[in-house]
Amino acid sequence: MRQIFLAIALIAAPVAAFTSFELYASTAPAKTASLGDLSPFKTIIADVQTLASKGDLAGAAKRITDYETAWDQAETAIRPLNQNDWNNIDAASDAALKALRQSAPSADKVSKALAALMAVLNNPAQPAQ
């Protein structure tokens, strides 16, 4: 009889410990990693916004290429930190690149796309509007 209780205890203890941990892990708030310092990207986009606001859309298109290059080079370091936030910024980046690289870019569309990109750079958890 003692051996049966011992066997039950040896089985029940690990099961209880594992179940307790799983319950704790599923109710603990999930923490997401920050993407780190995005200020170099913000600086470039601020430059692009300045050029676009002065009507120099060709200059803005040229300067956003610097952003695209820097963003692409940083992808392997930034993307694994927070996939969702990275996707939000990347989608806004693609929209800004598309707006500036049209054959006849609209100053209004460029301005809106750049503002949306800057907003997402400031708050990556919030998708572009």
Characterize the structure shown.
This protein has helices spanning 2-27, 39-53, 57-78, 83-100, 107-122. The termini are far apart. α2 runs antiparallel to α5 (107-122), α3 (57-78) packs antiparallel against α4 (83-100) and α4 packs antiparallel against α5. The chain is mostly helical and 129 residues long. The longest helix is centred in the N-terminal third of the chain and has 26 residues, at 2-27. 75% of the residues lie in helices and 0% in strands. It folds into 2 domains: 1-30; 39-122, no CATH class. The chain contains 5 helices and no strands.
Radius of gyration: 25 Å
Measured between the Cα atoms of the first and last residue, the distance is 68 Å
What fraction of the residues are assigned to beta strands by DSSP? Answer: under 5%
Count of individual helical segments: 5
Described by strand count, sense and barrel closure, the largest sheet is: none
- Return the average pLDDT rounded to an integer: 85
Order of helices and strands: HHHHH
Which regions are unreliable across 5 or more consecutive residues at pLDDT < 50?
A: none
Structural class: mainly alpha
Taken together, the total number of domains comes to 2
Helix percentage: over 70%
* DSSP strand count: 0
